[in-house]
Each structure stands twice: as structure tokens, then as C-alpha cells.
Amino acid sequence: MKIHLKLKLGIEGHRILRQGVFTVNIVSYKKDPEREAAITSYLWLKSIQREYSGRKIAIEQVLWDGADITNHVRQLKPVEMNNDLPF
Hints:
By secondary structure, the protein is α+β, with helices and mostly antiparallel strands. It has one domain (2-75). The chain contains three helices and four strands. It has a four-stranded antiparallel sheet with strand order 2-1-3-4. Strand 3 and strand 4 (67-68) form a beta hairpin. The model has no long low-confidence stretch (mean pLDDT 90).
């Protein structure tokens, strides 16, 4: 399954638009398409942050096939890994 995403970002006073087509897990997409699109957008945003390392990036708008999912992306938080493993 493929979805179309657009990110409108502010990077240190400059506005940029990124768009692309991404493959998503069809099972997860059928369960909750909005959440799957938000997760894909969030992961893409993290890769853009690595590309612009050290610069502050503000999310202005996230569009998924024309629908605004900006608030869903902003609410996502990274999962913390448990590092107290016994080995």
C-alpha cells in the first residue's frame, strides 16, 4: 500500500515543502490508516532532522492524501527502550 505525504516545515526562518510516496504496512493501515500515516510522517520527519542536524525544525503542516494530520504527528512520542537488560 502506498500513501502520498507532504511536509511543510520551518527551518531557521526558511520554509520548505517536502513530498513523497511511501509504502506502509497494509495490515496496520487497514486497522488505523490515520495512525499509520502519522507514524510514517514522523519517521520521515526524523530523517529530515538528521539531514539538517543541529537546526531547529518546526512542523507547519503535514498532509496525507490531502487530509491534515499535523496534530496526530505532533502527538507521537518516541518509544523509550529499556536498557536495564540483565545481559
